[in-house]
């Protein structure tokens, strides 16, 4: 027994020693990163001091000789005077960090480099507090002084300016403080809590946090800048995120859908790009792709085995993601849609609704591009007239818009450009639009003329003539139109704006004869459809006053996939979901809809 305890103690001691060594090694790597990034930062400050600060000060001195509005220029001069002091502060930090890393084995510490300069960080605080004000003064004075405007423009166009505006370059001065925060936090997490360096690093973080709090409180771009720095540090494989005009919008985890597999993917949405990453064990993320928002198409497809699906399409890739709830999916869809430029929003709307007017505005005509075909299994009734499909009344795709229609609504053909002007079947609506645009196509007629150049008694009359006469009759003119109550046409099966939608199996009054149908809850009403793309509901039922009772599995207290719908103790329907989680979502949605 004593031997086992001794062995266990030795193993634990070895593990602790290895963990300590690994932490020290990682702390050394972070210290090196701190040094290399400080070197690049000081070089940027040097260029800013020589090429921007010096040129602006000389221009202000020349304007002073004119003696006009000296108070505003004096305020601008005071604001810019912090830049040389900030450069000197970081030049000292760089030199001392270089010395520490050169003799790392002898003194493994860097936190005191910051603590020794606590008073000098006041220059950063003063710079931040005046940041928005002196940018405004710089802009105003540039309007009235060609010399100052030329100095600013020359710096922005220079190699040192990097082709970026002055505001962006000055934001990088503040950005460094947020970088200190994330680097020192990582450094702290790899130190022994009992060490003096651990306490010193906590003190250094407190010092830096006081200054960054000023940025969040007083700068217009403070919080956005902090978030971009944190994302940049959290995502491996991601370069510099600070770009002119870029704003953070949203982040969150969705499940990537590939066949039957589901994998977590973490998304960071900015005003111009979407970072598509996957989580790693250490709490950080690895970048898989950077998607441009400008060329993005976002939709909420109805997929039988993918609840709350969100589809993101670009010219290079197509992602199908699954959210945890309808609200989360809709929130992402809304946020992505708002980020799209106006012309791309219009283009996406045209693709979704097949809007002829918007297609014209974008220069995309009907029939020029292949449509997105609606899956045959998702439709049980004609998307044009609403008649039910059967063994005899079959489904037909319109090759212009992609809808599924009946034969009576798709008796026309028209040459389509994306098919190299080959004839293809189109629905009545698209045929009318195509004919209006392109006119009649020679040889294209719906009715065949009846030739009467032979006697009525001729055998040809009984075959060819009768055939052409009956072909010229449009069966849709004799077809009895299906009368549909207006309440059933108010909500489509796609479930736009619904509380929940999806497939459930249903049976009436406990008969256990299950039938799989598509259901949508919207406005406290349960709508029933044959399939997920139907435009007309089979029936609708207000849920107010109903009660929902889950059915527990045999020999268990847990709720199963079956639940029942009652009204005053009378069983109306029983429902069966694919799994217990799906059943729970439906139960909650029905309970919400059953009360005012």
UniProtKB/TrEMBL annotation:
Assigned keywords, A-Z: Cytoplasm, Cytoskeleton, Guanine-nucleotide releasing factor, Metal-binding, Repeat, Zinc, Zinc-finger
UniProt xrefs under InterPro entries: DBL_dom_sf (IPR035899), DH_dom (IPR000219), FYVE_RhoGEF_PH (IPR051092), PH-like_dom_sf (IPR011993), PH_domain (IPR001849), Znf_FYVE (IPR000306), Znf_FYVE-rel (IPR017455), Znf_RING/FYVE/PHD (IPR013083)
The DH domain, residue ranges: 26-218
Gene this chain is encoded by: LOC102735275
Organism of origin: Leptonychotes weddellii (Weddell seal)
Protein name in the entry: FYVE, RhoGEF and PH domain-containing protein 6
PH domain residues: 247-341, 497-595
Signal peptide interval: none
CDD domains: FYVE_FGD5 (cd15742), PH1_FGD5 (cd15792), PH2_FGD5_FGD6 (cd13237)
A Pfam cross-reference name: FYVE
Location in or out of the cell: Cytoplasm, Cytoskeleton
Family annotation (PANTHER family): FACIOGENITAL DYSPLASIA PROTEIN, FYVE, RHOGEF AND PH DOMAIN-CONTAINING PROTEIN 5
Main location: cytoplasm
Any GO MF annotation of the entry: guanyl-nucleotide exchange factor activity
Residue intervals of the FYVE-type domain: 382-435
Gene Ontology cellular component annotations, sorted alphabetically: cytoplasm; cytoskeleton
Function text: May activate CDC42, a member of the Ras-like family of Rho- and Rac proteins, by exchanging bound GDP for free GTP. May play a role in regulating the actin cytoskeleton and cell shape.
């Amino acid at each position: 027994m004593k031997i086992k305890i001794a062995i266990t103690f030795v193993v634990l001691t070895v593990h602790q020693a290895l963990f300590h060594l690994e932490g020290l090694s990682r702390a050394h790597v972070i210290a090196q990163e701190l040094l290399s990034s400080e070197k690049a930062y000081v070089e940027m400050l040097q260029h800013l001091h020589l090429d921007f600060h010096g040129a602006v000060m000389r221009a202000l001195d020349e304007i002073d000789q004119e003696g006009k509005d000296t108070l505003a220029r004096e305020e601008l001069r005071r604001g810019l005077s912090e830049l040389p002091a900030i450069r000197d502060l970081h030049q000292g930090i760089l030199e001392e960090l270089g010395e520490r890393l050169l003799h790392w084995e002898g003194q493994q510490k860097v936190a005191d480099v910051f603590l020794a300069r606590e008073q000098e960080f006041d220059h950063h605080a003063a710079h931040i507090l005046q940041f928005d004000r002196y940018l405004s003064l710089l802009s105003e004075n540039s309007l009235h002084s060609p010399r100052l405007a030329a100095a600013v423009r020359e710096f922005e166009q220079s190699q040192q300016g990097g082709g970026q505006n002055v505001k962006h370059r000055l934001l990088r001065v503040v950005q460094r403080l947020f970088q200190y925060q994330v680097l020192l936090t990582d450094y702290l997490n790899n130190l022994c809590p009992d060490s003096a360096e651990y306490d010193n690093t906590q003190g250094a973080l407190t010092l830096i946090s006081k200054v960054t709090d000023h940025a969040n409180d007083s700068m217009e771009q403070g919080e956005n800048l902090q978030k971009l720095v944190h994302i940049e540090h959290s995502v491996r494989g991601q370069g510099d995120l600070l770009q002119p005009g870029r704003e953070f919008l949203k982040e969150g985890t969705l499940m990537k859908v590939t066949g039957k597999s589901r994998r977590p993917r973490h998304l960071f949405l900015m005003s111009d790009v979407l970072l598509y990453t996957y989580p790693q064990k250490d709490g950080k993320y690895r970048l898989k792709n950077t998607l441009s928002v400008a060329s993005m198409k976002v939709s909420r497809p109805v997929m039988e085995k993918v609840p709350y699906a969100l589809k993101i399409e670009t010219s290079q890739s197509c992602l199908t993601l699954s959210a945890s709830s309808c609200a989360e999916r809709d929130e992402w869809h809304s946020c992505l849609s708002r980020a799209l430029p106006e012309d791309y929003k219009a283009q996406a709307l045209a693709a979704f609704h097949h809007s002829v007017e918007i297609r014209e505005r974008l220069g995309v005509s009907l029939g020029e591009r292949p449509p997105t075909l609606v899956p045959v299994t998702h439709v049980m009734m004609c998307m044009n007239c609403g008649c039910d499909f059967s063994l005899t009344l079959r489904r037909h795709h319109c090759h212009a818009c992609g809808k599924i229609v009946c034969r009576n609504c798709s008796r026309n053909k028209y040459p389509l450009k994306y098919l190299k002007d080959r004839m293809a079947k189109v629905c009545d609506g698209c045929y009318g639009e195509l004919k209006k645009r392109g006119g009649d196509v020679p040889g294209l007629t719906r009715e065949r003329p009846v030739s009467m150049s032979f006697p009525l008694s001729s055998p040809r009359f009984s075959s060819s003539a009768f055939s052409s006469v009956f072909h010229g009759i449009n069966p849709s003119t004799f077809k009895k139109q299906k009368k549909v109550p207006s309440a059933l046409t108010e909500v489509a099966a796609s479930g736009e704006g619904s509380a929940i939608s999806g497939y459930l199996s249903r049976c009436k009054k406990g008969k256990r004869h299950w039938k799989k149908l598509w259901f949508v809850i919207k406005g406290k009403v349960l709508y029933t459809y044959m399939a997920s793309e139907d435009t007309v509901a089979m029936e609708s039922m207000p849920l107010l006053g109903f009660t929902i009772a889950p059915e527990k599995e045999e020999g268990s207290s847990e709720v199963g996939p079956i639940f029942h719908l009652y009204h005053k103790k009378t069983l109306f329907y029983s429902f069966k979901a694919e799994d217990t989680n799906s059943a729970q979502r439906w139960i909650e949605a029905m309970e919400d809809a059953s009360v005012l």
